[in-house]
Amino acid sequence: MAEQVWQSVSALADPVRRALFDHVRRQHRPVTREEAADACGVSRNLAAFHLDKLAETGLLRTAYEAPADRPRGRGRTPKVYSAGDDFEVVIPPRRYELIASVLAAAVARQPADAGQAAREEAYARGQLRSSSVKGLDAAAQTLDDLGFEPALESGETDRLILRNCPFHALAAEQTDLVCGLNHAYVEGLLSNDPSLTARLAPRPDACCVEICGRSGT
User: Model pTM?
Assistant: First the structure.
């Protein structure tokens, strides 16, 4: 198992291969070579080479099937790729050092009410990155950089669904505490734009926070 994990980590050292892997994993459905190549701006042959290398390590699974949005035509069924096995590496991204730092600072500053101090500290940490967050698109970019993997859902009010919780393991054990800190952190991050609102909206295998606002503002 250790050797397989090492091979998987090594496989992601190449930036093109990592970009292809990230694209496939974020689609939550099988992806063809052509689609992955177009998304990452590389040739089909190069995409096929890297995708097959990722499949060899177990990071991707392969199958032969027609895309769901296209009718089955003549010729060979295309090879598609989807997310493979999970390993104890930072995929998807985790940021446990951030929440550890927040909790340590809170206990040191106000041990008698560390919970409230931690929420205030999380909000302040979010504020440190708030200057560049103006509008839903900018919020999505910042949250993507932080590993939240935002996805835009459009409607009467646009919203960002955060598909990854960077504090997943801790949130599973201490849900109320971690989700409260997560919410406070995102609120601080959005504090430079009153048109954006963070609210708790727990869902399985995702972040407990979602953001409402308008894209392109």
Answer: 0.58
List Cβ neighbours of 144 (8 Å cut-off, separation of 6 or more).
150
Angle between helices 96-109 and 175-189 (to 10 degrees): 90
Indicate the range of 84-98, 108-122, 134-148 predicted with least confidence: 84-98
Q: What three-state secondary structure class fits 93?
A: coil
Residues 6 or more apart whose CB falls under 8 angstroms from that of 30 comprise 63, 65, 67, 80, 81, 82
Residues 87, 157: Cα–Cα separation, whole Å: 37
Are 183 and 165 in contact by the 8 Å Cβ rule? The answer is: no
In this prediction, residue 169 carries a pLDDT of 78
**Interval 50-59 mean pLDDT:** 87
The pLDDT tens digits of the residues spanning 107-138 come to 898 888 888 999 999 999 999 999 989 989 99
The candidate with the shortest Cα–Cα distance to 119, out of 97, 144, 146, 99, is 99
Q: Where are the alpha helices (DSSP H) in the chain?
A: 2-11, 15-27, 33-40, 44-56, 96-109, 114-127, 136-145, 168-173, 175-189
Q: Please state, in angstroms and rounded to a whole number, the distance separating the CA atoms of residues 137 and 134.
A: 8
Q: Shortest CA distance to 144 belongs to which of 47, 78, 211?
A: 211
Q: What is the mean pLDDT of the chain?
A: 83
